[in-house]
Design brief:
Number of strands: 47
Number of helices: 10
Oligomer: single chain
Length: 945
């Protein structure tokens, strides 16, 4: 009887279980054009832990979904996000059927504009995505405006440099140890294969790295995540290049477990937007994946993107007034062609092997080994025993004559004695000779051939007085990386990882063209005797093409970076805690024994070591399915970069005295409101960066007393700032509203105050003062009163208003107007030290110094605000099963002239010289400026075969 009762009870329980119905949703995602299923689409129930990737058949399904009103978000790179409301009824499974996703035609816009700008602002999903936080990879209206509308004016999100963000490829950090910044040219021209990107903003956590306070960017090139496709594209523009062609093929994963992607492209221009700026670039990419089994896959990725571009010069207002904003002093005519003396070349192949290990449904381990090698070069003209070949050299300008002063009268300034006659002659002479005279340089490298009577019968090659050289860096970097992602429980996710990176960097000056001469003397003609020698171990060398000369040294650097990140996800709140540890060391090895620093240049320097820690935390309140409130905070320290550790690395092994880590703090709070029609975000942020070290080089007049009374006090110097602090605070706002199914409007705003927050210490290294007894001639100039000055070179206010129409027949047009303001010039720290006011010959303040005049001279220049109107549009067609698309944009439609940056020349290094130069009304050493593009266009035609 008891067995019978137990059996009946078991059957009743079973019938109750089977009678229960699931509560949830299911559906299938398809491409709106091809009607084919889309794999790896991220499907999320907003403000819940529920997230899935669609299967190869495009299918997703959720069970145990909370009943009531919910929002479903669909996200896949290359397609428009879809957000729509649903109503979940208990014990019912809602079938959404087939859901089409539309092509995101703005992705082609992004491709175009990223390529045009090639700045440090700089898509498919993978199975490595583990939490819904990855939806940060979808740029909101503000990020779109910042990158693609404001980027042309050098806008920086939150006023931060790219070294405070982490850029990764397949989980491997690509920021350079030399300066902390990624080298975008290493993957330039490969737009079709680097679209698989995930972003985090600010200090928000990443599934790949600890990250910086600006955010993270992960580029995924795993072959299996690319949908099978072949894309051809052809582009024309009038910016830094003229033409572009690209071809990309992705095979998809076959039944033998192989997938591969190949891409190639080229960009070129005989002349870009600015005069004399030729451009030549190739790009090649391959990614091959072998799926060994359900747990293991190996992927090899290779990048090779050799590119060279001619630079354009910053110019003073005087030079621009005589020419135009497009004027470029770096080129000249040679044999009927424009030849630029300053070419930047990047050839740095990247080879990367990744192992993807899926331990179980909740745990993934991604390990990689990366090798990067190659060169970066910057060319220029070197000369001895001759005049400067620069057509804008200060002695060639009219202002040299119109700003003349008589020699000082004792302690007092000499009289103003302008030579207007020669100034007028100089105008005509400059306009007739305002480019580099290559023919004259070749003539200067020849000597006359005389017959028996002494008559010149011709010219023969001789010692070169002018040559072309490259500052060259040959880097070899090996990086081993591993990232572990696991779900420890229903509410707890762990990401842990680290990498070790070793850099060997060979830096040297290489002679590339003797310009018709026979050889070049490897000496510094500004010094005598042993001090003139670049290498005392091989004195008086005569160098030819291909030889290293001038300077020659290695950097050796190692870094170990470890991090953990714990993320907790609940129904109404998420929060995270992240930590990292970094150990870094640098060493310089001099390959030349420099004559100026005979005891401090050859061999290895001391090894400089740093240890750093970082902590991040944040909390997300899910107010409702539509509203979120997010708080993030971070405190971390960074080692100084190699660039700022060795202040005079080309000549000696010296290290900045009392070098300290940077200390970085960041806080931000964001409010999100999102509905199918209305999306908005408001963010307040505050960040400080303390103990920055910064090195620069320039020629200064009137800076030193050489002990010879009223003699020359000029010098080429290295300037180092220490204990420099920056403070960045402000707000970001974005608003996007779908007025109708075809019409959308958006508004974005950034308001910041980016200032210096300390008075840093200034030291100057004067090579001319070096002796055996004083191998490190560093002079302390005291503090520079930079506090409350603005950080230069970027707009601190930006506003954008746009409207976009998308027709159901697959054409669209968009217009946006942008207002950018509060952009300032980069200031000269040495001009704001107490030494600036002192006469270097007496040590006392100049008698004409006054607080009022000093304030006038040192007021930071603010650039005029600018308004940029941009228009873009596109159309796509389906022809015999193939997609064809046309995209076009016109930027700065009104063709307005505006400054994007500039700097104060530090050559007038004391009050008297700056006061005289400015008071003349025609300053010879005025501020130098960079200008933005005028009206430009970009047209792109692409074909999906």
């Amino acid at each position: 009887m008891n067995k019978f009762l137990l059996g009946m009870l078991f059957l009743l329980n079973m019938s109750f279980v089977f009678a229960q119905k699931p509560t949830g949703i299911k559906g299938k995602i398809i491409d709106s054009k091809t009607q084919k299923p889309l794999e790896n689409v991220v499907v999320t129930i907003q403000n819940t832990p529920l997230m899935q990737l669609t299967t190869s058949d495009g299918i997703f399904s959720f069970y145990a979904v909370p009943s009531g009103n919910q929002l479903v978000l669909l996200h896949s790179q290359g397609f428009k996000d879809a957000l729509f409301p649903i109503v979940i009824v208990k014990d019912q499974m809602l079938d959404l059927g087939a859901i089409p996703l539309e092509d995101n035609q703005t992705s082609e816009q992004q491709t175009g504009i990223i390529t045009l700008l090639e700045s440090d602002l700089s898509d498919d999903n993978s199975g490595s995505e583990s939490t819904s936080g990855l939806l940060q990879s979808s740029r909101d209206a503000f990020q779109q405006a910042a990158a693609f509308n404001w980027g042309q004016a050098r806008f920086r999100i939150r006023g931060l440099d790219s070294q405070y963000a982490t850029t990764m490829i397949n989980g491997v950090t690509m920021n350079k140890l030399f300066d902390g910044r990624p080298q975008w040219g290493d993957w330039g021209g490969l737009n079709n294969v680097i679209r698989n990107q995930e972003f985090t903003v600010g200090s928000f956590p990443s599934d790949y790295a600890f990250g910086g306070i600006l955010g993270t960017q992960e580029i995924n090139t795993r072959a299996s995540i690319y949908k099978p496709d072949m894309i051809l594209s052809f582009s024309g523009t009038n910016t830094n290049y003229s033409w572009r062609m690209m071809a990309t093929y992705a095979s998809g994963m076959n039944n033998k477990g192989w997938a591969y992607v190949v891409s190639a492209g080229t960009r070129w221009a005989d002349e870009g937007y600015f005069d004399g700026t030729n451009y030549n670039a190739l790009a090649g990419f391959i990614s091959v994946e072998k799926k060994i089994n359900d747990q293991h896959s190996l992927n090899f990725s290779g990048f090779y993107t050799p590119n060279s571009r001619a630079k354009n010069s910053p110019n003073t207002a005087e030079v621009t007034g005589l020419t135009s904003e497009k004027y470029n002093s770096y080129w000249g005519w040679q044999d009927g062609k424009k030849r630029n003396a300053r070419i930047k070349t990047i050839e740095e192949p990247i080879l990367m092997l990744n192992h993807f290990f899926t331990l179980n449904d909740h745990t993934i381990l991604n390990s990689s080994l990366t090798y990067q090698f190659g060169k970066i070069t910057n060319s220029n003209i070197d000369y001895q025993n001759g005049n400067s070949p620069d057509p804008t050299y200060y002695r060639k300008m009219p202002s040299y004559y119109s700003s003349l002063y008589a020699p000082d009268n004792g302690e007092f300034s000499g009289a103003f004695i302008p030579d207007y006659e020669n100034a007028d002659k100089s105008v005509a002479l400059f306009l007739a000779n305002n480019q580099i005279d290559w023919k004259a340089l070749y003539y200067a490298n020849q000597s006359p051939v005389l017959d028996a009577s002494g008559k010149i019968t011709g010219y023969a090659s001789a010692k070169s007085n002018y040559v072309l050289y490259e500052d060259r860096t040959d880097d070899q970097t090996i990086t081993a990386n591993s990232t572990f992602n696991t779900q420890l429980s229903d509410t707890l996710f762990l990401t842990a990882g680290g990498f070790y990176s070793h850099l060997k960097s060979h830096n040297y000056q290489q002679l590339t063209d003797l310009l018709g001469g026979l050889y070049f003397d490897d000496i510094d003609v500004f010094y005598n005797g042993n001090q003139a020698q670049s290498d005392l171990n091989h004195p008086d060398r005569q160098v030819v093409v291909g030889d290293a000369y001038g300077y020659n040294f290695n950097y050796d650097a190692n870094t170990l970076n470890l991090f953990t990140n714990f993320k907790f996800t609940y129904d109404k709140v998420d929060f995270y805690l992240a930590q990292n540890f970094i150990s870094t060391n640098y060493q310089r090895e001099g390959l030349y024994q420099n004559g100026i620093y005979a005891t401090n240049s050859f061999g290895k320097s001391e090894k400089v070591k740093f240890e750093n820690f970082g902590f991040k935390g944040g909390i997300l309140f899910k107010i409702s399915g539509k509203q979120q409130l997010n708080f993030n905070g971070a405190y971390l320290s960074n080692a100084p970069t190699i660039r700022n550790t060795f202040p005079n690395s080309r000549l000696n092994n010296s290290v900045v005295a009392d070098l300290e880590n940077e200390n970085i703090s960041s806080l931000d709070v964001s409010y999100f409101y999102r509905t199918p029609k209305w999306q908005t975000r408001l963010t307040l942020f505050y960040a400080t960066i303390k103990n920055i070290t910064q090195t620069s080089f320039f020629y200064a007049e009137g800076i030193f007393d050489d002990g010879a009374g009223y003699a020359n006090t000029d010098a080429f110097v290295s300037q180092t700032l220490t204990h420099l602090d920056k403070k960045n605070l402000g707000a970001e706002f974005s608003f996007q509203y779908q007025l109708s199914p075809t019409l959308m409007t958006n508004f974005s705003a950034a308001y910041g105050q980016y200032t210096y927050d300390s008075n840093p210490n200034v030291t100057i290294t004067n090579d001319a003062q070096a002796t055996i007894e004083n191998p490190n001639p560093v002079f302390d100039f005291g503090t520079s009163t930079l506090q409350n000055y603005h950080q230069g070179g970027m707009p601190q206010q930006a506003f954008a208003l746009g409207i976009e129409y998308r027709d159901p027949k697959y054409w669209w047009i968009g217009v946006n107007i942008n207002y950018l303001a509060d952009s300032f010039i980069d200031i000269s720290p040495i001009s704001r030290t107490a030494t600036f006011y002192k006469n270097p010959e007496s040590g006392f303040n100049f008698p004409e110094v006054s607080e009022e005049r000093a304030r006038e001279l040192l007021t930071q220049e603010a650039f005029e605000p600018t308004t940029l109107l941009n228009i873009s549009g596109g159309k796509s067609w389906r022809v015999k099963g193939k997609n064809i698309g046309l995209f076009a944009t016109v930027n700065n439609v009104l063709d307005l002239t505006y400054k994007t940056g500039g700097y104060e020349q530090a050559r007038n290094a004391n009050f008297r010289q700056l006061n005289q130069d400015v008071s003349s009304g025609t300053p010879n050493f005025g501020n130098k400026y960079f200008y933005g593009y005028g009206r430009t266009y970009f047209v792109n035609l692409y074909i999906n075969l």
